[in-house]
Amino acid sequence: MIWSEVVSQLFGAAATVSADGDFLSGSAVLDGLAMTVVGTTGHAPIGYALALRQAAVVLDTMARHPGRPILLLIDTQGQQLRRHDELLGINRAMAHLGCCIALARRQGHRVIGLVYDQALSGGFITSGLIADACYALPEAEIRVMRIPAMARVTKLPEDRLTALSLTNPVFAPGVENYVRMGGLRGLWGTAEQPDLAAGLRAALADASTADRRADDGLARGGRRMAAAVVRQVLAAA
């Protein structure tokens, strides 16, 4: 689904969101509640400039609209793999974006992520995975790397990794597997939840801002050890 259709289904005519290249920004109103909308489109590679533009919107929202919710619309192929961006400090720019989102959450802004098309690698880590909660459309694509690339990194045969992906969501791409692992709170636009606006409304009404991904992953059978390890680390701190 293209970003304009997503915005239309979420807010109807009560939105002024525009695209400047791969960069999305604007505002919208849901049930009388004003929101900031920021994100990317066109399978955008997140370079230093695009990361800083998104961060600027988050900072501007904190300065001018304290407490206003922020919706992150996510469509990215990951970080920009270009020497130019590496030399200009893409790592620091993406870290800055993540820190701005984390600060907004601490300042009382509800931050909701929605993967409406594609989410890969660092472009997803520094946006949707830092939100209070992240959701996705069922046709979206989420992965860290393809199995052939995973095979090169792990030195394991592709057929072995393919077999593992059938029973272990850690090795498998797809939104359903990220729901099982707790990385996604849920899916919007399904037969059970066809109304995108209703999904956003429910997400905003959820009072919890705690990171419950490890517990969700345990309850859903996708990550069996993470919650126990988190508790052990916190107990030893």
SSE layout and pairing:
Layout: H1 3-11, E1 15-20, E2 23-30, E3 33-40, E4 44-46, H2 48-64, E5 70-79, H3 83-87, H4 90-106, E6 111-120, H5 121-125, E7 133-136, E8 141-143, H6 147-154, H7 158-167, H8 175-181, E9 186-187, H9 196-205, H10 213-219, H11 226-236
CATH architecture of the domain at 3-137 and 188-206: Alpha-Beta Complex
Largest sheet at a glance?
9 strands, mixed
What is the CATH C-level name of the domain at 3-137 and 188-206? Alpha Beta
Q: Would you give the CATH topology of the domain at 3-137 and 188-206? A: 2-enoyl-CoA Hydratase, Chain A, domain 1
Order of helices and strands: HEEEEHEHHEHEEHHHEHHH
Count of distinct strands? 9
Could you tell me the strand content as a percent range? 15-25%
Contiguous low-pLDDT stretches (5 residues minimum) are none
C-alpha end-to-end distance: 44 Å
Name the CATH superfamily classification of the domain at 3-137 and 188-206: 2-enoyl-CoA Hydratase, Chain A, domain 1
Let me know the average pLDDT: 91
> Count of helical segments?
11
Overall helicity: 40-55%
Report Rg.
18 Å
Shape: globular
Helix-strand makeup class: alpha/beta
Describe this structure in words.
With 237 residues, the chain is of the alpha/beta class. The chain has a domain at 3-137 and 188-206: Alpha-Beta Complex (2-enoyl-CoA Hydratase, Chain A, domain 1), CATH 3.90.226. 45% of the residues lie in helices and 23% in strands. It has 11 helices and 9 strands. The protein has helices spanning 3-11, 48-64, 83-87, 90-106, 121-125, 147-154, 158-167, 175-181, 196-205, 213-219, 226-236; strands at 15-20, 23-30, 33-40, 44-46, 70-79, 111-120, 133-136, 141-143, 186-187. Strands 1, 2, 3, 4, 5, 6, 7, 8 and 9 form a 9-stranded mixed sheet that branches. Helix 1 crosses helix 9 (196-205) and helix 2 packs parallel to helix 4 (90-106). The termini are far apart. The mean pLDDT is 91.
